[in-house]
Amino acid sequence: MLSFRDRAVVVTGAAGGLGRAYARGFAARGASLLLNDLPESGVEELAAELGAAADTSTVATREGGAAVVEHALERFGRLDVLVNNAGIARPNYLEDLAWDDLEETLAVHLLGAFHVTKPAWQPLSEQGGGAVVNTTSAVGLFGQPRSSGYGAAKMGVVGLTRVLALEGAPLGIRVNAIAPVAVSPMAGAVYGPLTPKLDPDLVAAAVLALAHESCPLTGEVVSAGGGRLARLVIGAAEGLFDEALDPERAAAFLRDGFESLAVSAPGSAMAEIDLIRVRYPELAEPMRYEPPPREA
Hints:
Elements: E1 8-12, H1 17-28, E2 32-36, H2 43-50, E3 53-55, H3 62-76, E4 81-84, H4 99-126, E5 130-135, H5 138-142, H6 148-168, E6 173-180, H7 200-211, E7 221-225, E8 228-232, E9 236-237, H8 247-256, E10 263-264, H9 269-277
C-alpha cells in the first residue's frame, strides 16, 4: 500500500468534490495534511474530521499562496507534496466574458499555481525534493466552447508543469499535471449520462500515485476519470521541409498536407527545434541549451 506516513501534504481547493477525495485519500494513508480552501467552503469541518490542519488563505494572491506554504512549514516543519487543485468556474462565450471573470479565473487557476508553488520551491529543494501535482484540463489541451479563460489558464498550467519538471529534475522535485474527469460542483451536469461513472475517488487514485515518492514520472500530463488512466501529449509532426519555402508552398501545405498524423512528443522546446536541425546534414550535433547560471 502506498504510504504517506511522515510526509507533509498540502492540498488547495480541498473542500470540493475532487479536493475532498484527495484529502481523504492522503489522510487514509497517513499523511500530515494541510487543507486549503476559502472560509465558507467547509474546509475547517473537513480538516477536523480528518485530523488535518485547515488554511483559509486565498491562492489568488501572492500573499495568500505564501501564507499556505508558511502555515504548512510552521505546522509540520517540512513540505513533501503540493497538490494545486484550487479552481473556479466562470464559463461564457468570448464576446460575453466579463474582464473581472477572466482575471479571477486566471488568478485562481494559473497564477494560483504560481502563488503556492514558488514559495514552496525552496523548501522542497532544500530537503532534497518532493512532488508537485498541478491541475489542468482537457479543455486547455483540446478546447471547448464557452471556456476561453478557463482553457487559457489550464493550458498555462501545462506550460508551467513542463518547465518546472525540467528545472526541478536536478533538485529532486517531480512536477506533473492531472487532467481530471469527475463529478464536481465546478463541472456541474456537463457529463450527462456518464456522470454516475465519474467518482472523484477514481481521480484521487491517480493523484496519490503521482504524488508518491515511488512514482518516476515528471513533466507528464495524466488524464484520469471513470477508471481510465492515460498519458496526454503535445505532439510535433514531421511536417514539410523546404529550404526555399515561400508563401505559396506554405499555403499549399497548410491546405493539403498539414493534418499529418505522424507525430512525436518532444521532451522540451529545444527537442522540437531539433526536428529542424536533422534536416541539415552538416549540423550533426543535437541542439543543446545551457541555461544561464543562477545568481548567487
